[in-house]
Amino acid sequence: MTDRSIQDIEEMGGAKYTPEERQDYEDSLKVYRDMKNVLDTAELKGLKKGIEQGALEEKIKNAKAMKVLGLPLETIAKVTGMSVEDIEKL
Question: Phi, psi at residue 22, to the nearest 5°?
């Protein structure tokens, strides 16, 4: 148990806890922190995936618009970073 954890318990009136109760508290706190870290990581991964998906959708939208304007497929490919084959499918 860390000094800070003991201080947290004592500030909450936990000085009355037995060593077993303190350990239970520490264990539950560890589970909480681990779960929070997992959720925070999942949220960040979801945000990153959403940003990537949005960028791809914007690239496709722009490629379609350039194609409608009659720009050469090679030019569209250079501007968007898409392959000529993918642009032809739009």
Answer: -65, -40
Confidence of residue 11 (pLDDT cuts 50, 70, 90): low
Judged against a pLDDT cut of 90, whether residue 9 lies above it is answered with no
Distance in angstroms (rounded) separating the CA atoms of residues 54 and 46 = 12
Among all chains, which residue has been given the structure tokens 């954890």?
5
Tens digit of each residue's pLDDT (9 = 90 or more) over 57-66: 999 999 999 9
Report the pLDDT value the prediction gives residue 32, as an integer from 0 to 100: 92
Contact 62, 80 (CB under 8 A): yes
Q: How far apart are the C-alpha atoms of 35 and 18, rounded to whole Å?
A: 26
CA 1 to chain CA centroid, Å, is 31
User: Rounded to whole angstroms, how far apart are CA atoms 58 and 51?
Assistant: 11
Joined together, the tokens standing for residue 77 give 């490919």
CA dihedral over 12, 18, 19, 24, signed as positive or negative:
negative
